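queue> pop job 88
queue> type: inverse folding (structure -> sequence)
queue> payload:
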């Protein structure tokens, strides 16, 4: 965009590079509020896209679920079903530093 005085005005958007992988599947932040789950063994086929309620600061993926969060809040999604859906939301007492997931459990480090 240019102004009447001849100045050029540009806007810069930075989308954080958030991704997580489990076996051949990758979950990545494809826009500020959307996560795409991709199967790398099938020529990068998109399994599902999920619209988020927040702009997350972290993303972790497990065998059937992924979670996104900001500060002390995590939202869990089941991506392995035909349509990804919210499973639950959790609020913790302090900021979340790390998250690990497996088939049954999620471990959260908060300080």
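queue> result:
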């Amino acid at each position: 965009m240019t102004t009447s005085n001849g100045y050029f005005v540009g806007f810069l958007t930075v989308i954080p590079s958030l991704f997580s992988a489990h076996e051949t599947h990758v979950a990545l932040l494809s826009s500020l509020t959307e996560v795409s789950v991709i199967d790398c063994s099938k020529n990068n086929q998109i399994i599902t896209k999920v619209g988020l309620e927040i702009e997350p600061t972290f993303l972790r993926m497990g065998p059937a679920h992924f979670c996104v969060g900001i500060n002390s809040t995590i939202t869990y999604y089941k991506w392995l079903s035909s349509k990804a859906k919210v499973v639950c939301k959790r609020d913790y007492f302090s900021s979340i530093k790390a998250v690990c997931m497996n088939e049954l459990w999620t471990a959260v480090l908060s300080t």
